[in-house]
Amino acid sequence: MAYIKFREMAHYFNFHKEIDKKDLPEYVLQYVLGDEKIWKAYGTRRDKCVFTNKKLILFDVQGITGKTKKIHIFPFNSISSSAIVYKPRTVYLLFTFTSGYQMRLNYINLTAEDKKELRKLWTKLISYCQNKEKELDI
Questions:
Q1: Statement: residue 57 has pLDDT above 90
Q2: What's the whole-model pTM score?
Q3: What are the tens digits of pLDDT across the range 22-37?
Q4: Domains of the chain by range and CATH?
Q5: How far is Cα 49 from Cα 42, in angstroms, rounded to an integer?
Q6: CA 10 – CA 14 distance, rounded (Å)
Q7: Residue 41 forms beta bridges with which residues?
Q8: What Cα–Cα distance (Å) separates residue 29 from each residue in 3, 10, 49, 88, 95?
């Protein structure tokens, strides 16, 4: 019998602002395919989180120079369950993938309107996961 250790993959992401699509760096846009639409993008000074209509892309920029990047790509069809947790000025998105890995994305210093927008995004994402054969638009 195999033992799989469950652990969070990206507990170190703390996004604090939404990024306008036109302000995304070129290296981020290179991972968005031509037939994909960017739903939302969040970031810190260095790290980025992009939700498209097909996948979640995380950019973990490491080191002082920022030249090392670790890029995580998660197709929505690989999400087996998720949750949203509200705390004062903070929202956590929790995902479990079909591989068994878990991930937590923290969104900090949010206003009530920011929380509402994140809830709408999460609802669309979960709707997509439940209706994988349909193309959704946000």
A1: yes
A2: 0.80
A3: 999 898 899 999 899 9
A4: 14-130 (2.30.29.50)
A5: 5
A6: 10
A7: 50
A8: 38, 21, 12, 32, 24
The Cα 59–Cα 1 span in angstroms is 35
> What confidence score (pLDDT) does residue 124 get?
87
Question: Per-residue DSSP letters for the chain?
Answer: -------BS-TT-EE-EE--GGGS-HHHHTTS-TT--EEEEEE-SS-EEEEESSEEEEEEEESSS--EEEEEEEEGGGEEEEEEEEETTEEEEEEEETTS-EEEEEEES--HHHHHHHHHHHHHHHHHHHSTTS----
pLDDT at 10: 44
Confidence band of 39 (pLDDT split at 50, 70, 90) = very high
Residue whose token pair is 């703390």: 14
Tokens 């260095």 belong to which residue? 46
Residues 120, 102, 79, 47, CA torsion sign: positive
Chain Cα centroid distance, residue 67: 21
In degrees rounded to 5, what are phi and psi of residue 89?
A: 65, 10
Report, as an integer, the average pLDDT of 82-94: 90
φ and ψ at residue 83, rounded to 5 degrees: -150, 160
